[in-house]
Amino acid sequence: MRCQARAHRLGKHNIKMSGMFENPLHTDFLSQLGHDSGIGFTTTCSATPLQAPHVAVFNNSLLQQWGLPFSDAQSEPGVVASVLGGNVPWPDTAVTSTASVYSGHQFGVWAGQLGDGRALMLGELLTLDGHVEVQLKGAGPTPYSRGGDGRAVLRSSIREYLCSEAMHGLGIPTTRALALVASPTTVRREVLETTAVVTRTAPSFLRFGHVEHFAHHGDHEALRTLVDALVERYFPELSGLVGDQRIVGLLGSVAQRTATLMAQWQSVGFCHGVMNTDNMSLIGLTLDYGPFQFLDAYIPTHICNHSDSGGRYAFNQQPQIAYWNLHALAQALAPLMDNNTQAAGQLQQALAPYPTLFSTHYTLLLTSKLGLAAANTHPEDADLINDWMSLLARQGVDHTLAWRNLAATSQVAAPKPNNNPPAALSMLFNDLPSLHMWWARYIERLQLLSEPEQLSWGHRIKATNPKFVLRNHLAQDAIIAAQSGDWSVFNSLKTVLDTPFEEHHTFNEWASVPPAWAADLSLSCSS
Ligand code: AMP
Ligand code: MG
User: Fold this and answer.
1) C-alpha to C-alpha distance for 309 and 223, rounded to whole angstroms
2) CA proximity to 389, closest of 354, 362, 410
3) Does ligand 1 lie within 6 Å of residue 149's CB atom?
4) Under a CB-based contact definition with an 8 Å cutoff, are residues 63 and 70 in contact?
5) Ligand 2 mean position to 172 CA, how many Å?
6) What is the pLDDT of residues 320-352, one digit of tens each?
7) How far apart are CA 292 and CA 149, in angstroms?
């Protein structure tokens, strides 16, 4: 670690950059806040150079979305590798890179100070999407590394890159990946592995743990400064609120965003794996991809993280765990409440809508996944949904395929009474009579749709149920190939996951149940 000093100055290479690097980096939100208030939210810190970095992947479409040109990524890959590998600073910038301090609850227990142990904030870009923070993940140790090497192995970097883009493709709020820079530098995990740096971006990387940190230390000035700035920048709709109302409003808004996010995760079978409070985004993003997994078979109690022996973060626990985490956030906000006698009750009230918000949104998503008109629900829809999910769970049916195959590939009009389920659906079930019983009820319900709704039912099924998700074994295939220098699997997978609702017939094999070896894949916190 070489804090306070930069190893290289790109200026001396005398390269005139065009494209992405022409855009100045601005000081990031937390560092600016620290600068203005004199409070230590971040520490200046430089990356540790990587041996022979090269750009393995670059996300042109993200730059396009931001309205930034990418000519330098094409014409100067060596410079891009040096900058996004952490070897040299962003050209012509006076902004220093930083790591931020946070704390948190891990596996339900207070874990004390954590912080950006392997994430380095370069600064912010001003884009068509507004301010976007740019971080390097795996660029070497920081003051918060707690003995760790600050690196990320290629395997986990590929998983982070693919999954953040896959979540975006599914329409789920997430941090994004801009680039993956690989290097022959090795680090030891269970075995020696090569490392990589993912450039990840988000409007904000603030976590519940940032608030918890200053509350735990009784630093109410820092807590107040952080919360006020958070509201002004990321929750402007609350900026008119003052005093307790502002705190309560903030907690309610975070709870609302979290409830929506949890509903989205559950609806696509996404299991995060490490929902510690330091991995919970204050602005409702999916954050920190580690031992995550998309369900293959629908097993509600599935635990994807092998370090999670107690199943705290099992798939079906996630909405409840998010609620637990929101309570930890509420406790951290409590010291800011003026009216202490009523504070607990008011904060509790801000959280109270969470279970209903979650279940309403989840039901809405599942209703549309069944191709039913969400605006025109029927009282018996809840039973229809519950019985469908129970059917999948009882038989361990593949989650993604079951939903997608409600309609056959080219089927657009809703099935009529006495139509059988599509063959692709039936073949997923062992107990066909149970499927047929549920199917008969489903068809009956479909007949209640208006005629135009019935005629477009198949389109709705295909538009709400992805054909492709980042199954573990697909990520593994991409990793194995990339580890031997072949990025073609990664690139094809990324293309498919960018638009996962489309057919991509060439890649039909990626929309089938996993091979037997996938069951032996083991994911833990170590990455
Ligand atoms: P995670 O489980 O990845 O969310 O990480 C928990 C904490 O450990 C965070 O503060 C990380 O920044 C830190 N951390 C994880 N891996 C490393 C590493 N290889 N080196 C340093 N810090 C790490
Ligand atoms: Mg983390």
Assistant:
1) 34
2) 362
3) yes
4) yes
5) 19
6) 999 999 999 999 999 999 988 899 999 999 999
7) 22
Query: Which of the ligands is closest to the CA of residue 160?
Result: 1
Percent of the chain residues past pLDDT 70, beyond the cut: 95
The 10 Å Cβ neighbour count of residue 32 is 17
| Ligand 1 in reach of 137 Cβ (< 6 A) | no
Residue 512, phi-psi category: left (phi > 0), alpha (psi -120 to 50), beta (remainder):
beta
Q: How far is the CA of 45 from the centre of ligand 1 (A)?
A: 16
Note whether 160 and 137 are within 8 A (CB). Answer: yes
Cα 444 to Cα 155, 440, 448, 449: the distances in Å are 48, 6, 7, 10
Sequence-distant (≥ 6) Cβ neighbours of residue 73 within 8 angstroms = 19, 20, 55, 58, 60, 63, 80, 179
Q: Please count the other Cβ atoms lying within 10 Å of the Cβ belonging to residue 159.
A: 26
Q: Structure tokens of 101?
A: 């301090």
CB-based burial, 236-268: b 16+ in 10 Å, e otherwise: eebeeeeebebbbbbbbbbbbbbbbbbbbbbbb
Residue 235 DSSP code? -
CB of 116 closer than 6 A to ligand 1? Answer: yes
Measure the CA–CA gap between 100 and 102, rounded to whole angstroms.
7
Closest C-alpha residue for ligand 1 atom 14: 117
Dihedral sign from CA coordinates of 33, 109, 331, 215: negative
As a whole number, mean pLDDT of residues 413-417 equals 97
Active site residues: 278
Atom 12 of ligand 1, residue of closest alpha carbon: 117
Ligand number nearest to the C-alpha of 287 = 2
Query: For ligand 1, atom 19, which residue shows the shortest CA distance?
Result: 150
Length of the chain: 527
Q: How far apart are alpha carbons 207 and 205 in whole angstroms?
A: 6
Q: Ligand 1 pocket, 275 CB below 6 A?
A: no
From the CB of 277, is ligand 1 less than 6 Å away?
no
Give, as residue ranges, everything with CB less than 5 Å from ion ligand 2: 279, 288
Could you report the per-residue pLDDT of 267-318, keeping only the tens digit for each?
999 999 999 999 999 999 999 999 999 999 999 999 999 999 999 999 999 9
**Residue closest to 5 by CA, chosen among 60, 39, 45, 49:** 45
Going by the DSSP 8-state scheme, the letter that residue 243 receives in this structure is: H
CB 140 less than 6 A from any atom of ligand 1: no
Mutate which of 105, 110, 118 for ligand 1? The one with the most ligand atoms within 8 Å of its CB, which is: 118
Half-sphere exposure of 340 (CA within 13 A, CB side): 1
Q: How far apart are CA 70 and CA 78, in angstroms?
A: 14
User: What pTM was computed for the model?
Assistant: 0.96
Q: Is the CB of 148 under 6 A from ligand 1?
A: yes
